[in-house]
Design goal:
The protein has 10 helices and 16 strands. By secondary structure, the chain is α/β, with parallel strands linked by helices. The structure holds adenosine-5'-diphosphate (ADP) and N-acetyl-L-glutamyl 5-phosphate.
Length: 291
């Protein structure tokens, strides 16, 4: 049932101080994982991003696509393998990774945003992120695994991103880098986003995922941790409360904070308008990481 007009107007007025505070500021948003699986959820999120841009905030979106890559690899008869949350990526797999991220997911996001009347520009990670191959990773106690074409970001060509923002377009960036010889490297999207947020000194860095935030028990919603600092994160890792896909997230969040990002938030991409609630209301949503 529609709310009375004055209640609806109050929601806009509640947003006023936040719009005034955040206009002109740069927010990096990592969008990935299961929160990307449902078309309705994707559209709702992207409309929220268009809204941010329309009220003068400068969002930069870094997207993932791990699930789609896994499914395409399986179709090709390849068996996905992860070490410490990172996909082992051989020559055949990197072609699939590039195809899924740059030719499918990235243009689809831009198209939906255009459909909502937003301005967005797709940027291939390879065009802005310079990387180098990761050394072999330790699995278990001592086994070293060659990760293939998996990299870390050593430089960001921020001028290309800045140009898009100056043109009032939302940069939508895929998590790939190029190495010194121009070869594509697969970058975990959380790590790519954390590096970009740090280099751009984002006012906020927001992760949208498929959990309410960081939890003491990922199966119990009530165990959500609303605010956490570096020392507490280290303890949560030691106690193996933060595991799996949450590890690259907290690591890149801490990296971004060390680089001067003001605030990092983990919110649930499945909750309708969690992004707008986090930014434009006093309601605390998800987990905030403070320096
Ligand atoms: N303490 C924790 N709190 C919340 N989620 C956690 C925690 N530890 C591990 N996880 C896992 O991390 C996952 C999120 O990481 P991931 O699946 O890589 O997200 P995305 O694909 O959105 O980047 C959650 O679905 C959850 O299973
Ligand atoms: C090296 C590495 O693991 N790269 C990731 C890149 C995509 C990603 O991170 O996507 P999500 O954010 O949706 O998980 C991968 O191949 O799955």
């Amino acid at each position: 049932m529609a709310q009375p007009p004055n209640v609806r107007a109050e929601a806009l007025i509640e947003a006023l101080p936040f719009i005034q505070k955040f206009r002109g500021q740069l927010f990096v948003i990592k969008y990935g994982g299961s929160a990307m699986e449902d078309e309705q959820v994707v559209e709702r999120f992207l409309r929220d991003v268009v809204f941010l841009e329309a009220v003068g905030i400068n969002p930069v979106v870094i997207h993932g696509g791990g699930k789609a890559i896994t499914s395409k690899m399986r179709d090709a008869g390849l068996k996905p393998r992860f070490v410490n949350g990172l996909r082992v990526t051989d020559e055949q797999s990197i072609c699939i990774v590039e195809d899924v991220l740059d030719n499918e997911i990235n243009p689809a996001i831009v198209k939906v945003m255009h459909g909502f009347g937003g301005k967005a520009v797709g940027i291939k990670g390879k065009d802005v992120l310079i990387g180098k191959k990761l050394p072999p990773q330790t699995e278990g106690k001592s086994t070293k695994i060659d990760m293939g074409f998996v990299g870390e970001v050593i430089d960001v060509q921020t001028d290309i991103i800045a140009k898009a923002i100056a043109a009032e377009s939302v940069p939508v960036i895929s998590p790939l880098a190029r190495d010194a010889s121009g070869h594509a490297l697969n970058i975990n999207a959380d790590i790519a986003a954390g590096t970009v947020a740090g280099r751009l000194r984002a006012a906020k860095f927001i992760y949208l995922s498929d959990v309410p935030g960081i939890m003491r028990d990922p199966t119990d919603k009530e165990s959500l941790i609303p605010s956490v600092n570096r020392a507490e994160i280290e303890q949560l890792r030691e106690d193996e409360i933060i595991t799996g896909g949450m590890i690259p997230k907290v690591e890149s969040a801490l990296h971004a904070l060390a680089e001067g990002v003001e605030k990092v938030h983990f919110i649930d991409g499945r909750t309708p308008h969690s992004l707008l609630l986090e930014i434009f209301t006093n309601t605390g949503v998800g987990t905030e990481i403070v320096a």
